[in-house]
Design goal:
Helix content is about 35%, strand content about 15%. It is α/β, with parallel strands linked by helices. The protein has a 5-stranded mixed β-sheet with strand order 3-2-1-4-5, covered by helices on one side. The radius of gyration is 41 Å and the shape is rod-shaped.
Length: about 150
């Protein structure tokens, strides 16, 4: 049996596209399968709602609790009651980074009342308690911090 190859006038110059399409499809499938596996995960941490955590600007004035010889209490040289002192200290320390309270006791104040004031300040959120000495009273507490 013989085959006729058509006109035998020369070489056939048509491009056979089928193998090219097969190779392109195989490469396309390989890239489609591999690309999702190579992309790293991006984890995002969303901050909490800012409405609930707005901070007031901290006041720079240090807290100084004073106890006089007759049992009178002052907070930053303003007279106060012992019942309200804990609430005032907590409110003042709420937005401060450094929770420092200075204690200024009169030399003739009762020791028991002084210890009660120290405990009250600690329970109200003070982390550091500083007791002012007589020579410190001539300087301001600002100079004691720095």
């Amino acid at each position: 049996m013989s085959m006729a190859a058509g006109n035998s006038k020369g070489a056939k110059s048509d491009i056979n596209v089928t193998p090219l399409v097969d190779v392109c499809l195989v490469l396309l499938i390989i890239f489609m399968v591999m690309v999702p596996r190579n992309v790293p995960e991006i984890s995002v941490k969303v901050p909490p709602d800012a409405k609930n955590q707005q901070r007031k600007p901290p006041t720079e004035e240090p807290l100084v609790i004073g106890l006089t010889a007759d049992g009178g209490l002052t907070l930053n040289r303003n007279p106060t009651d012992k019942n309200k002192l804990a609430e005032q200290i907590t409110k003042q320390l709420e937005f401060r980074d450094k929770k420092v309270v200075f204690i200024d006791f009169d030399d003739k104040a009762k020791y028991g009342e002084a210890v009660d004031i120290l405990d009250l300040a600690k329970r109200s959120g003070a982390e550091v308690l500083g007791i002012m000495k007589p020579k410190d009273k001539t300087r301001t507490p600002d100079k004691l911090n720095g």
